[in-house]
Amino acid sequence: MDAITPTRLGRGFYTRDVLEVAPDLLGKLVILADSEGKELRYRITETEAYRGEEDRACHASKGRTSRTEIMFHAGGSIYVYLIYGMYWMFNVVSSEAGIPQAVLIRALEGYPGPGKLSRALGIDGSLYGIDLVSSDRIWIGDDGNIPAYITAPRIGIEYAASPWKEKDWRYLVKNEG
DNA sequence: AACACGATTTCG
DNA sequence: GAAATCGTGTTT
Q1: Among A45, A62, A66, A93, which is 20 to 30 Å from A147 by CA?
Q2: Strand, helix or coil at A113?
Q3: pTM of the model
């Protein structure tokens, strides 16, 4: 069994609409080095789409601020923020510049839960704004895995108005999560 | 300067 | 069901 060398996702993958990027990230590999420099790979099994200023569940619906700034840039950068004072949420920016969108990585194979996966991988605020297309610290690879998936409403956004809180913009690999 | 709250997790 | 815990946006 030869191990397949993953190909790094390029700019074009990320600059599409978040409703295409979020499901397409399922099965892809988050690749980074651990504290000893060893390369680690984690397969994405669950994502959620946050789509523009009109999406009341998206942080960018509050407008352009120091926190949401990166979402207004072209896709491919990392958006991370601290929630409840203790958990870092790992997001991937999508779309063209000027259209704020991001994909929340909700689960990796073996690491269900956005807060738990960040803790396991050591993801924190220092990753804010890092470009996944050019960074040598963290990137996303494709090894040809294209899993079947299901959709569902997003979690933890009850505060958002309709129709946004009812959108089926959560994507889960079938038989996982 | 003070306040309210959250794209979660864990414990009781 | 409720606490933990703090950066960010909003109000004073």
Answers
A1: A93
A2: coil
A3: 0.96
In the 96-155 segment of chain A, residues within 7 Å (Cβ) of strand B are 102, 104, 113-117, 154-155
Residue spans of the domains in chain A: they are 7-173
| Confidence at residue A2, expressed as pLDDT on a 0 to 100 scale | 59
Taking the CA atoms of A25, A28, A10 and A88 in sequence, report the sign of the dihedral they define: positive
CA of A62 to C1' of C12 (A): 21
Query: Does CATH number 3.40.50.300 belong to domain A7-173?
Result: no
Question: How many Cβ atoms sit within 10 Å of the Cβ of residue A49?
Answer: 27
Task: Say yes or no: Cβ of A91 under 7 A from any atom of strand B.
Answer: yes
Q: Is the pLDDT of residue A66 over 90?
A: yes
**C-beta separation of A8 from A72 below 8 A:** no
Which pLDDT tens digit goes with each residue over A86-133? Answer: 999 999 999 999 999 999 999 999 999 999 999 999 999 999 999 999
The rounded mean pLDDT for chain A is 96
| A176 close to A46: Cβ distance less than 8 angstroms | yes
Take residue A10 and report the two structure tokens written for it: 């390029």
Is residue A167 within 8 Å of residue A22, measured between CB atoms?
no
pLDDT at A5 over 80: yes
